[in-house]
Structure formats: C-alpha cells, structure tokens
UniProtKB/TrEMBL annotation:
Name of this chain's protein: TetR family transcriptional regulator
GO terms, molecular function: DNA-binding transcription factor activity; transcription cis-regulatory region binding
DNA-binding region: 37-56
Keyword annotations from UniProtKB, A to Z: DNA-binding, Transcription, Transcription regulation
Domain HTH tetR-type: 14-74
Biological source species: Umezawaea tangerina
Classification via InterPro entries: Homeodomain-like_sf, HTH-type_TetR-like_transc_reg, HTH_TetR, Tet_transcr_reg_TetR-rel_C_sf
Length: 222
C-alpha cells in the first residue's frame, strides 16, 4: 500500500474515532454510561457497532477515552507552569462549566464513586494532576528563604483545599445553575486566595484538637 493510501486509512480511522467519542460524550451526559449501549452510540455516531470495540476494546476503554478528552480540555498542557492570575484560571473554569458537556466528568464520577477499576483510577489521576498543578502554581511563587520541606507540605495542603473548593463550586453550578452567581463565587475565592497567599508559607499547619473544655463550651452554646 502506498504512503498516501495509508494516510487516507488513518484519516478515516481518526474521523471514526472522533465521531464515536462525540456520540458517547453526548449520550453519557444525557443518560450516564451505565445506561448507554454500543448500539446507542452506533446509532448516534453513524459508525457501525463493530467498529467501537475495534477502536476502544470495550466499554471501559471507551469511558476512559471520553474522560481523557474531557480532562484534556479542562487541563490543557502547561496550564499551571506560568503564574497566571487566579481570576484567569477561574474564568476558564467558569467557561468550562457553561459550555458543552462540561459536567460530564462529574456525572461519570457520581457513577464511579465506590467502584474500582479503570474509571476510578482515571479520576484519581485527574484529581492528582489538578492538585499537582495548583502546587506548581504555588511553588513558583514560594518566597526566598522558605524551608523547602515545610513549604512543600504547606503548598500541598493549600492545593488540596483549593481544589476541593473548586470541585464543590463546579458541582453546585451543574446541579443548581440558577441558584447562585458562579462568577461572583469564583471572584470571592480568588480574592480570599490573594489575601491569604502569603500565609501559605508563614502559618504552621497545626491541627486543631478539640478539648473537653471546647466541647463543654459548645454544649452550653447549644
């Protein structure tokens, strides 16, 4: 086969794969992945049912491919390697919430919670990448003279807290989009981070241990 012929075959294969992924993404967002069959995806995509396992092996492989594409849109390479203002990062987050099937990863997450396997592992990787990205964003701003080991622990804790806040806001916006002002919520988080950023490296991570006196005081207040 000529090189030109092989390129054409590859192009057809890439187009088929894209159409399958587009259809699967739409259907997963509409019905969830448990209630979506290869037959449904074939009908929506216009690609034969037999082509789906040829491209993705099985349903788990297709779910992972859909997730990978959605995650790549949410976290383009190099997102945190510079130091963009948090308002810029959050604006991108707000755009993702509003456009297309932005809620798809979280919808699949609700079906995957409590399970094991490739989908669960994919979410572990996604959350780890987001936390690592936020840690990197903090690390490039680390003040000179900070103890590296202590600073790394504090940056990790702050990244986990910030990531959890963003996930919570994202989920609220998907479940109740008219219940609050998404932009105002993200601006509020950005302002709080800007105000307290220096504390990341100066405030020790000492756990609060509730004492017997604390508990008694709480009971009296109740």
């Amino acid at each position: 086969m000529s090189a030109r012929g092989q390129r054409r075959i590859d192009e057809i294969g890439d187009e088929s794969r894209r159409r399958i992924l587009d259809a699967a993404e739409e259907l997963f967002a509409e019905r969830g992945f448990d209630r979506t069959s290869f037959v449904d995806i074939a009908e929506r995509s216009g690609i034969s049912r037999g082509s789906i396992p040829w491209h993705f092996k099985n349903k788990a492989g297709l779910v992972v491919a859909v997730l990978e594409r959605a995650i790549d849109r949410a976290m383009p390479p190099g997102l945190y390697k510079s130091v963009p203002p948090l308002t810029e990062v959050f604006e991108d987050s707000a755009t993702l919430v509003r456009e297309g099937n932005a809620g798809l990863p979280f919808m699949i997450l609700t079906e995957a919670i409590g399970t094991t396997g490739v989908v669960h592992a994919q979410y572990q990787d996604f959350f780890a990448r987001r936390r690592d990205g936020l840690e990197l964003w903090l690390r490039v701003q680390r003040p000179e003279g900070a103890d590296p080991e202590t600073a790394a622990k504090q940056e990790r804790a702050f990244a986990v807290a910030l990531h959890g806040t963003l996930v919570g806001i994202h989920l609220q916006a998907l479940i109740d989009p008219d219940g609050f002002d998404l932009d105002a919520a993200l601006r509020s988080i950005s302002a709080m981070v800007d105000k307290n950023l220096a504390d990341v490296w100066t405030t020790p991570l000492t756990p609060h241990r509730r004492t017997a006196n604390d508990r008694k005081a709480r009971k009296r207040a109740d």
